[in-house]
Amino acid sequence: MLNRKELEPENSPVAAFGERLRRLRDERGWTQDDLGERMGYSGTHISAVETGRRSPTPRFASSADKVFGTGDAFERQGRAVRNTALLEGFPEYVPHEMRAVEVRLFELGIVPGLLQTRDYAAAITTGAVRRGAITEQQADERLELLAKRQASLERTPSPLVFAVLDESCLMRPVGGPEVMAEQLDKLAGFAELPSTVFQVAPYDLGERRPFDLPINLLTLADRSHVAYAESAQRGHLVRESTFVVAALTAYHQLQAEALSQSASVAMIEQLRKGTS
Questions:
Q1: What's the total number of domains in the chain?
Q2: CATH number of the structural domain spanning residue 98
Q3: How far apart (Å, rounded) are the C-alpha atoms in residues 166 and 124?
Q4: How much is the pTM?
Q5: Each residue of 178-209: pLDDT tens digit?
Q6: SS3 of 64, please?
Q7: Which of 21, 30, 134, 168 could tie 34 with a disulfide, CB 3.0–4.6 Å?
Q8: 25-29 — which CB contacts under 8 Å span 24+ positions?
Q9: Going by C-beta distance under 8 Å and a sequence separation of 6 or more, which residues neighbour residue 139?
């Protein structure tokens, strides 16, 4: 029972699935290996599903229903997991972010979620709904989770937040002039906070920009590190490893090459005049 991870079922469908699986297993006094043997999986696989590191497949959910005699409860929860608007890996990342003492962000194309206004975020999700990429319910799910993530930054003591935005984040119009004006104001206000550093990576960095995809880097209270990166189809959560160390080094190099905070704010102010 040492180092047993606490589960937070309210965070996401995958977390709720894992919590139910563990709760029913505990009620029967089974170990993860015991349940794995009954379901046809390894104990390691059971652990990964319980803690949200692996999403349940239809076969896994069906097997759980048979073993626990729960009708189609796990199958229905499994469908909710597969239908969620959140990429694999992201639900597990969020609790780490909410407890991190330092958050480092690099984003391309759009303002990162933690820095978005409500209207900017709504415009992004509305666009995804219109394309058929997500449903309206999934859009609401994204916005609700984003609000929780943003609220977590207001905890005491506040985490240090370093944000480097590619210039494309500022140049891409989202939601119309009023929405963009409000969003630019929010970024300027973010830069003024005592626990933040805001920088823009200009286009002319060219090949000196070390990242080709967005990345989030967290420092936890015990000074360990977590990295989260996304491709078009999935998210990848990586704990302390050579990859994370290399990513941190690259982030420091990016900060050295990017515009200073004062120059970054000046760029925002110039763009803001164009949206007035």
A1: 2
A2: 3.30.870.10
A3: 18
A4: 0.70
A5: 999 999 999 999 999 999 999 999 999 999 99
A6: helix
A7: 30
A8: 25/50
A9: 85, 125, 126, 128, 129
